[in-house]
Design goal:
- This protein has helices spanning 12-28, 42-48, 54-62, 85-95, 119-122, 162-178, 193-206, 219-228, 240-253, 292-304, 309-324, 342-352; strands spanning 2-8, 34-37, 65-70, 100-106, 126-132, 144-148, 151-155, 182-187, 213-218, 235-238, 261-265, 271-275, 327-328, 338-339.
- The chain is of the alpha/beta class.
- The strands form 3 sheets. A 10-stranded mixed β-sheet has the order 2-1-3-12-11-4-5-10-8-9, with helices on both faces. A two-stranded antiparallel ribbon has the order 6-7. Strands 13-14 form a two-stranded parallel ribbon.
- Strand 11 and strand 12 form a beta hairpin.
- It is globular, with a radius of gyration of 20 Å.
- The protein binds 3-isopropylmalic acid and magnesium ion.
- 3-isopropylmalic acid binds at residues 72, 86, 89-90, 244.
- The site of magnesium ion has 2 residues, from helix 9.
Length: 353
């Protein structure tokens, strides 16, 4: 397994360190893992002037899988847009053609009181958001801020071609097939033509998946339903911008965004694995971050890029045991539980492995 890992910014290096310790365990048992560190985001800007430098590009392209912690921070927000850490993230997603972003929102039973929703609304929650990741308004041209007739005008372009919709649709139908065979496609077809095409193509390809029940929902309603009755969903498929927003929302159903891993895959299951959360600059360097989303991202890597379900389940089981033992980082802390640091959480997972 050739892994390129990118600690990034903020809490990134702290949580990545815990993920690497998990890999150490497997390596000590004889698993063949080659790993190389590279720079992405603000760390890369500071060292090279670019958020996704050529050296990182080379290592990431050569790897079977990429592990990414988090990028960004206020320090770099003043830079011109092409040099901002977020551009590095978008750059690597596009460069590696990682069009399929899988964002599971799973509520661990132990955390049902950590959610801001009533336990009965969220208990047993297990949904998968399939977000298109290399198109839409994130990448559409023309874009930018220009001056027209003496006025500043801001412009972005929402655009999808049918092939882009079809390939993410197939990923979502396949995923639904392995789960409860229910797929909800989210769009805004009452207003946006791009998403009218989205809906048309989803309906066309549904003919290839007669065993999967396809439904459609407008994005505003989907946002409401996610907090009203989230368990009505199983797999959700949507475009880049709607998926960005809905996946943050879904994460809070589970108590903390600090628990959620994600996978971003190309057509051959080469993938980049990262927590759904950001770089949390406010707690960076304090050993307070929750490393579980990062560690669970290693599990997703084992499952999707290396087809090693056994190891993936082993990691997830270790995380469940740690939660069952009452260990909590600050973001998921509740009265009566044991508050632990980032490294202590790492120790606990490794002990259970
Ligand atoms: C995410 C993040 C990124 C996105 C940002 C950091 C560019 O919010 O992965 O959801 O918008 O895709
Ligand atoms: Mg986001």
């Amino acid at each position: 397994m050739k892994i390129c890992y990118l600690p990034g910014d903020g809490i990134g290096p702290e949580i990545m360190a815990q993920a690497l310790r998990v890999l150490d365990v497997f390596q000590s048992e004889g698993m063949k893992i080659e790993r190389e560190e590279a720079l992405l985001g603000g760390a890369a800007v500071d060292a090279t002037g670019e958020p996704y430098p050529p050296a990182t590009q080379q290592l990431a392209r050569a790897a079977d899988a990429v592990l990414l912690a988090a990028v960004g921070g206020p320090k770099w927000d003043v830079l011109p847009r092409p040099q901002r850490p977020e551009r590095g993230l978008l750059g690597i997603r596009k460069d590696l053609n990682l069009f399929a972003n899988l964002r599971p929102a799973v509520l661990y039973d132990e955390l049902k009181n950590a959610s801001s929703l009533k336990p009965e609304v969220v208990s047993g929650l297990d949904i998968l958001i399939v977000r298109e990741l290399t198109g839409d308004i994130y990448f559409g041209e023309p874009r930018g801020i220009t001056v027209e007739n003496g006025k500043r005008v801001g412009r972005n372009t929402m655009i999808y071609d049918e092939d882009e919709i079809r390939r993410i649709g197939r990923v979502a139908f396949e995923a639904a097939r392995k789960r409860s065979k229910k797929l909800c496609s989210v769009d805004k077809m009452n207003v946006l033509e791009t998403t009218q095409l989205w809906r048309d193509v989803m309906i066309e390809i549904s003919a290839e998946y007669p065993d999967v029940e396809l439904s459609h929902m407008l994005v505003d309603n989907a946002a409401m339903q996610l907090v009203r009755a989230p368990k009505q969903f199983d797999v959700i498929v949507t475009g880049n911008i709607f998926g960005d927003i809905l996946s943050d929302q879904a994460s809070m159903l589970t108590g903390s965004i600090g628990m959620l891993p994600s996978a971003s895959l190309d057509e051959n299951n080469k993938g980049m694995y990262e927590p759904c959360h950001g770089s949390a600059p406010d707690i960076a360097g304090k050993n307070l971050a929750n490393p579980l989303a990062m560690i669970l991202s290693v599990a997703m890597m084992m499952r999707y890029s290396f087809a090693d379900e056994t190891t993936a389940t082993r990691i997830e089981t270790a995380v469940k045991k740690v939660l069952a033992a009452g260990l909590r980082t600050g973001d998921i802390f509740e009265e009566g539980m044991q508050r632990v640091s980032c490294t202590e959480m790492g120790d606990a997972v490794i002990a259970r492995l």
